[in-house]
Amino acid sequence: KVVAVIMVGGPTKGTRFRPLSFNVPKPLFPLAGQPMIHHPISACKRIPNLAQIYLIGFYEEREFALYVSSISSEMKLPVRYLKEEKPHGSAGGFHCFRDAIMEDNPSHIFLLNCDVCCSFPLPAMLDAHKRYGGMGTMLVIKVSPESASQFGELVADPVTNELLHYTEKPETFVSDLINCGVYVFTPDIFRAIQNVSNNREDRANLRRVSSFEALQFPTRTLPTDFVRLDQDILSPLAGKKQLYTYQTMDFWQQIKTPGISLKCSELYLAQFRSTSPYLLASGDGKKNATIVGDVYIHPSAKVHPTAKIGPNVSVSANVRVGAGVRLISCIILDDVEIKENAIVIHSIIGWKSSIGRWSRVQAEGDYIAKLGITILGEAVTVEDEAVVINSIVLPNKTLNVSVQDEIIL
Ligand code: GDD
User: How far apart are CA 383 and CA 346, in angstroms?
Assistant: First the structure.
């Protein structure tokens, strides 16, 4: 049997995702109309003999309760949320729930970061992992040398694919091959994590008896049960014939900011063409709105037939889109109203917001720049004919004048 674990973090993580993480935990923010973690979860469906999926985090249980019960019945597979009392790090959190994870006596365990967007080639990774015969196999990808330092950089053997060297977010360039945050392990991984905590405990005890040691390592005071997968496990085990790499040639993005989430929504919508074409809207401008490119529209949304929508648009539940509205490259969250002839381009419109008649909400569409897309928080009102360009607007604001390149607090 196989089980999958998704590390979802907690409210103190994901702060770069504000103001969109104010009312929904980041892992549940919708990309292509589905919660962020829905994409890895549905990729898990293709893993043979998958017994369970666990979500591990330090959010309150109730924040995930609804999603977990609906996805369990949709997948016909138990999906459980396990809450850590405090953050234990990416490997420590996983280790906390060793007994639950080992319940089904799995031969292999997938471990996925919640905040990556990719095609999740999990069955192919598992096959490669079995061929390599190591303890773990990680998904890796080549990125531009300029962006590599935001990730774990690594060197792999070109023939055997063994992980030879690993450095987490190095200051000087090591390699343009990086860690995607998607792994498959044998249960031996738990022993490796346990060893890190044991060693740390030994050192802490030593420090207590030896003031010389305390002077030598004054900053090494991580709690013994706080273990980071990258620094504490991957780096020391590289080059020991235990860890291997599987390189993806497909798309991959890390989802740390709202700007990038708009890009990821686009990537997932494009993927729907082959995986779930029934989720993509179609329209001809007669009975339904005109649809351009890849668009998702929730069945409860009401879209006027004279509206024109796409490409890269996702429209969530209970949204109302008026006559003559134009939407391009945007995420429209639940209960938003967009009134007649308004235009929204390269923007994310927060829950329950209202966009006035003939108004424009837009940005240049630079996904990486701080103000490269416009973001409206929850319940923002843009009055008729107002123009909002390259701006971030915090929840509950009313805009009756036009703004550009501003953060409205
Ligand atoms: N449950 C739980 N508890 N989850 C955690 C904790 C914790 O204490 N700490 C982190 N996580 C989760 C995060 O939600 C995320 O899904 C994953 O673990 C990794 O988070 P970080 O440890 O903050 O690392 P990162 O996202 O900056 O970078 C990691 O992922 C990159 C790929 O996206 C590293 O492994 C990089 O090397 C890698 O390139």
Answer: 19
